[in-house]
Amino acid sequence: MQESALAGSADSGGVHLLSSLGVALKAIRTNSVRSFLTMLGIIIGIGAAIVAVSISQGAGDQLRQQIEAFGTHVLYIQPGVSMRGGRSQGAATARLLTERDLEALRERSDLIEAVSGRIQGGATLVVQGKNWTTQVVGVGADFALVQNRRIVEGRNISEADVRSGERVAILGQTVVDELFGGGDPIGARLRINRTPITIIGVLEEEGTSSWGQDQDDVVWMPLSTVRTRLAGTSGPDPDGVGVLVVKVWDDLDVLDAQAEIEHLLRVRRNIQPGAEDDFRVFNFAEFIRARNETESLLGFLLAAFSLTSLIVGGIGIMNIMLVSVTERTREIGLRRAVGARRRDVLSQFLVEAVVLGALGGVIGTILGVGGTYLAANLGEFPVLISPWTLAGAVVIAMFIAVFFGFYPARKAARLDPIEALRFE
């Protein structure tokens, strides 16, 4: 090591850097166990950060895709419970949304591309000795447009089906597989709560949502059919629609549309100024904003956790570098005596710190990628490993090493050559 260091002191520029790199690698090999323990904090910090960031990005990316598939210009309007003195009066006090509300929005707002009512409930389907329990959704003719879903076989539910309460249905792919073995169900008849239903279409396969729901395990039927033949009619609003789903034109601001819809419904439902709405409007744009804020907070916490591990690793590097300076004091004195400048000694120790940080970063990155795929397989998490994340991890590890290695390197560079040669 001493000969290499001495040779390095006579070189300059790139040759000097290569010489310093060789000395650093030799020192790490000579003390391999100590070097590994020195890098351990960096390895753990980088590995944990990559696993956490990759899982977070994977979940966020999957959720973003599914939300965008629904459409960021879709509004959901639900009936709200009545309030008295700031206290909820319970779900039973909610005034239903009705088809009259739906028609009012359709006729009076130019910001709305399509609107549909929705009633949803569970039911058991029976066909040819087989049965399957699933979600039956009563929908309007525009529901496929509003939900951005395609009918891949047969036809969609029409306005005439809704007006006349036709006993027809569109099946999701899971229902087709369970009841028809994946065969063609168009024109077949099944029974839902003893009501005969004719199948007129099949929905395009969507898969499982990020919250674990099978989006293909569903049956669509005309809203009026579900209300009168399956759910029954009761109460003061026999034309209740459960939920209104609104699609705003893509080139318009969804918040402007939301404000107009809230105003129209307040007027139509005779809600006095100052009184609280008896309905609630949700939009995915707000949901995305809330998700982004949550993701930012989660990212901040992950960054704080990883930074703590990296600081611990950096302190380990500083500690070992200080020990190394003490052990090599005579070597440093000899280098200075034969002409090495302070910056030569400084760069020598900084290169050693960078090598420790880079090796720790690379090992941590490899373990982080392996841990990410292991977590994805064991927990079935969606993951997204970005090349920028991996490159950034190594760069951060090197920066930490330089930051914490600077003080020992500076201490070595400032040693007095005479005193260093006298060091025992």
In sequence order, what are the helices and strands, one letter per element? Answer: HHHEEEHEEHEHEHEEEHEHEHHHHH
Low-confidence stretches: 1-11
Strand order of the largest sheet: 4-5-10-7-9-8
Q: Looking at the structure, what is the overall shape?
A: elongated
Q: What's the helical proportion of residues?
A: 55-70%
Radius of gyration: 34 Å
Describe the structure.
The strands form two sheets. The protein has a six-stranded mixed barrel with strand order 4-5-10-7-9-8. Strands 2-3 form a two-stranded antiparallel ribbon. The longest helix has 44 residues, at 284-327. It has 14 helices and twelve strands. β8 (189-192) and β9 (195-203) form a beta hairpin. α3 (32-70) packs across α12 (342-379) and α10 runs parallel beside α13 (387-413). Helices cover 57% and strands 17% of the residues. The chain has 424 residues and is α+β, with helices and mostly antiparallel strands.
Task: Give the topology, please.
Layout: H1 2-10, H2 13-30, H3 32-70, E1 74-79, E2 83-84, E3 87-88, H4 99-108, E4 112-127, E5 130-139, H5 143-147, E6 151-154, H6 159-164, E7 168-171, H7 173-180, E8 189-192, E9 195-203, E10 218-222, H8 223-231, E11 243-248, H9 254-268, E12 279-283, H10 284-327, H11 329-337, H12 342-379, H13 387-413, H14 417-422
Helix pairs in contact: 1-2, 2-12, 3-10, 3-12, 3-13, 4-9, 10-12, 10-13, 12-13
What would a concise description of this structure say?
The chain has 424 residues and is an alpha+beta fold. It contains 14 helices and twelve strands. The strands form two sheets. It has a six-stranded mixed β-barrel.
